[in-house]
Specification:
Number of helices: 5
Protein name: Response regulator
Shape: globular
Pfam family, one: Response_reg
Oligomer: single chain
InterPro entries: CheY-like_superfamily, Sig_transdc_resp-reg_receiver
Largest sheet: 5 strands, parallel
Order of helices and strands: EHEHEEEHEHEH
Structural class: alpha/beta
Radius of gyration: 13 Å
Keywords: Phosphoprotein
Distance between the termini: 13 Å
Number of domains: 1
Strand content: 15-25%
CATH architecture: 3-Layer(aba) Sandwich
Number of strands: 7
Length: 121
Amino acid sequence: MPVLILEDEPFIALDVEELLAAHGYGEAIALSRGSEALSWLEINVPRLAIIDPRLSDGMCSAVVRLLAERGTPFIVYSGETSLLTDEEPAFGAGELVLKPAPPEDIMAAVTRALKPVQATD
């Protein structure tokens, strides 16, 4: 299963994609719009999602709600320090990693997010 990256800054998306590949996480799909992600999620199930909450087409609340309903682990990768859960409670189901984060912080969050999933494999 691929990792879904939702990020509207191309260089950040590429950095995250390359970081995941370097750590053996295989295929990743990077999308910049919540509407694209919802369409992709109609026929795909990611093993993990790394999400910037504010994309080029607005807040990705519907995506986060869908991931939370499905039990798909996700990381909220954001430069915002405001409480995103005030705007959308489903953001609370993911771990917040503040941008910019060093690669080791991102990978530690990935490991924590996938740990329950890996334990059942």
